[in-house]
Structures are given as C-alpha cells and as structure tokens.
Amino acid sequence: MKVGFFVGCNTAFNRPDLEQAVRYAFPALGIELDNLEGQSCCPSWGTMPSVDLVGWCAVGARNHTIAEQKGVDIVTVCGSCYGSLAESKYKMDSDPELKARVNEILKEIGREYKGTSKVRLTYYYLYHEIGLDRIKEALKYKLDGLKIALQPGCHTLWPSKVYYDKEEDPFHPKVLKEMTEALGATVGNYTRLLDCCGMGAMRSTDMDKSLNLVAKKLISMKEEVDPDLIITGCSSCLLQFDTAQEFLRNSKKINFEIPVLHYMQVLALCLGAPAEQVAGLAKTDVKGIINRILKG
User: Fold this and answer.
1) Cα 271 from chain centroid?
2) Per-domain residue ranges for the chain?
3) CB 143, CB 293: distance < 8 Å
C-alpha cells in the first residue's frame, strides 16, 4: 500500500515530531509514504479562499495533481489542510466551469487537475484501509487504564457533505473514539465535544476570544471526564490545546494542566516509536503519560 503524505505548514514548522509520528506509524503498519515532492501550502483558510476562489482552487488543485500523477491518495494530520484540500476538490468536482478555469491556470505549468485522488485525515485512512483488528495486532504498548478526552476538530466534521466520512455522524462522531479505544483507552464523553477550539484565524486576530473558547472546552473536559490525556485528530487543535494552557493558567482561567497529543503520536508510541522522536516538542508535560504508556 502506498499513499501521499501532505505534511502541511503548521506541522512542518511547529510540530515536526507529529510528522515523524506519521513517518513511523504508517510504515510500521505496512503503508509506504510518498513525500509528494513539490507540495505547497494547501492554501489555508486565512489566505486566498475569501478573496480569490479560482486562485485558491488552483493552488489546491496543483497539490492534488502531484498525487494524481503518482496514482496515490493523500493523507494529512492537519484539519485545516484536510478542509482546504477537500473543499477545493469538492467545488471543482461539482462545478465544471470552475474546474475548467482552474485548468486554464494549471496549463501554464503543464498540469491538469482530474480529480482522481482522494484526501483523508490519517486516522480515517487507517480506520478504513488497515482496520481496528490489524492495528490492535501491531501494538507493542497499550493505553490500558487511561481515561481520554477527545478533540475531533471542526474540519473533520463540517460541512458534512464535503468533509466527513460517509459512515460518520458529525453530531456523534465515532471514528476517533473507536481508533482510541482500539489502543486500550477508555474514552469519556463531555458536553462541549463538538465545540470549536478557537484555533486558526480567530487566534491570529483575537487571542482573547480564542483562549476563551479553548478554556470552556478544557473546563468541560476536566469537570466531566477528568482525563489523563487529551487526544486530538487535528494538528491545529493540537497546537491550540498544547500551547493555550500556559496562557490560561497564567491568567487564572484554569488551575490545571492536561497533557495533549495527536492521535498519530499516541499510535506511534504504542507501535514502539522513540518518545523523543514522535512527541518531543510538547509544551504540556507529556513525560508522565508517556511513561505510563510505556510501562503498561
């Protein structure tokens, strides 16, 4: 099996340990990663979509053509990358005129968007192409005895006709839960599961509002689940939960800390990856939870 790995800007520049987690876990499960040489920004929501629809789709389409030429689908750990690439693909595939305008632009660099490659988040890809049983068989360590709070991420679920897995109910998401339970953990439910974490453009333009959103989620998690660990399905959510907690403690909005990791980091650890390689850049203290995982 072979799939193209779309790393994304945030992951490459801010959390390369997450990138390394993917590069460890996928081959460990028998999947070859293609680097999609020449990939660019997706481009992100805070840039082109609001001012130049055709230009935005053209940049996204160029990334898609790299995968198309190699005959592979695309996986990413970033909800924003997934959302941008999935929505631009949806728009082009459902609007022949838009697709034609995009291909007029791509013709100048000798490319043509055909729409033959899918794009999926890493854990959705593993859920369907590898399956829970094969993942369980490959584990060297498990999350037995650990209580987990999940953060699926907005772009994983909405707009549902564009993004979400067709077997998924966006109001009652199951895939990340089942994938986490496959590692041996107990997943707790909390009322703000579907709330936005406040990352992205909001954090860039209004830090206070952004932090207030993530504070509400953290307090809900703490009061209703009291988790040992937060597991996210999105690298942007990872950055928000991992870096915001210090700000919130300093401003007296929370008086606790919960370690946070992306699902792919936890999976890599359970498959035997070195902790410093796949989870070495966390701002929250993850050493204790990693020790619990590795000691069984």
Assistant:
1) 19
2) 2-121, 139-295
3) yes
